[in-house]
Amino acid sequence: MVKVGVVGSTGYAGYQLSMILSRHENASIVFLSSHNYSNMKFSDVYGNLRGFLDNSCIDMQDVGSYLTKIDVLFLALPHGQSFDLVEKALGLGVKVIDIGSDYRLRDHMNYEKWYGVTHRLTDALKYAVYGLPELYRDSISSANLVANPGCYPTASILALAPLVSTGTIDNTSIIIDAKSGVSGAGRSANVSTLFCECGESVKAYSIATHRHTPEIEQQLSDAAGEKITLSFTPHLVPMNRGILATCYGNLKKDISQNELYDLYQSYYKNENFIRITDSLPETRYVKGSNICDIAVRVDERTKRVIAVSAIDNLIKGAAGQAVQNMNILFGLSEHMGLDMLPNIL
Description:
By secondary structure, the chain is α/β, with parallel strands linked by helices.
């Protein structure tokens, strides 16, 4: 059994992670911690888990005393809050999977520019592995620190990687238009995500300034073998969960629809969590699962390709991917704990 601890367990990503781990046949939850709900039963915070996950949440200040009892530490914290715990855990030989953003960018100056926080564990950036299994499975398997990707980057990178890695599109022409459900903003009280503020409305936000932009650029640059600068615009839509990313690029040469599908099918031929679909993806068809649906279209009139992807932002975009990474780290079946069927209702 893999002994696990979860810090930040009562946020939306932490809740989803804790729920998956509680049903995982080869994982044992040693502790759940929470800043706001310490000493409360997890099932008193989330009543749907009563009788299934009744662990009492420990205070974050007490986590250090539990680190010697676990094999892997999951962190679901806001940016800038992971440094001390990660340093302690790694020093004790505990593997770390960080669902936050503190280890995704290799350049600490770039991190500080986009996040406005001084990075206090820059040495860890040298060996942190970006936790997108479809691209970095071999590196993940031997990692001590895994930087779980963001939700928007997961959807966007998976949609575009086959195109940039094969030189199919002009890499200076990439535009990503993405939509997210409200859970992507987290569980903290925020006027902009109140029901009356976001219901019956769709809005763009953080235009040209969203913090996931450099993460997407970094990973696509690696795939392309050249520096990529792109335009990324996120939107908030009035639904609980899900991300839809519509990605555009100018074709460098003529390619048919069938050839494009052959390219994607070949690129993801061994990936059971990726579905290349003929019909256009919808968030409801992946909701509650670790699946990413991708469809591609050639616009012959404009000589563009449009790649559309859909994921559940809390599962493939966060907690499910974190468990997928854990499975790889400990030599378990990658599907263990993640065989959830999408639930459209």
